[in-house]
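Give me the fold.
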Amino acid sequence: MRLKDRVAFVSGTAMGIGEAIAILFAQEGAAIVAADVNEEHGSATAERIQAGGGRCLFRRTDVSVEGEIRALVEDGAREFGTIDVLVNVVGIADENPLHEMELSQWERILKVNLTSMFLTSRYILPGMLASRRGSIVHISSVQGILGFPGYPHYAASKGAIFSLTRQMSREYAANGVRVNCIAPGTVETPLNIQVLERSSNPAALRAGWERMHPIGRLGQPIDIAYGALYLACDESSWMTGQCLTIDGGMTTSALL
């Protein structure tokens, strides 16, 4: 088991990429401290882990609220010991061109997608520094690299994660803490399924998304989970400050 005796904090565990990461990490031996605002589905993920013989502590937590993050980190440390793996998955998106966007809409995306990563890191890093061991994985997006009309706030938040990753990796490498990020392409998550369902022509939109990926299909949450596992475990012990792009080849050519 690649994460035996590790304790991993994973956000966004109710569904999609976060759910896949939490389940895979538990199968690889990690105790999971799980966070999500969706209590029903978050609890279901925890129950699935426990039914498979794994350990999981789930609390309904808004990772953009400082007090809630602090409480869950403290509960997790009491339950399992020092948290030595952090995977920041939570991300939200909505569509609006910048010239029509309200400040509140901009601030909400930045708070959930970026400030949450600061807060979880802020409260988990002291334990990692004390034990001189840790791996932090931020989930970004190819939209931090490429432009997609209608998502300026989302792109800004995801692009900032690249810079945050590099800065943190430089600051904490000497203390035994590695920091990397993943930039997924279009993954078949509940968030993207909702986008398809809102479309006037879901089949055409899906076909367009598939054409953007040379491999010819959308990603699945497990595709990203395996990348996160690599970055979290000792197999990547000489890797820090990097962005692992898992995108079905999207960033190799101009978008269609």
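The two ends are 41 Å apart (CA to CA).
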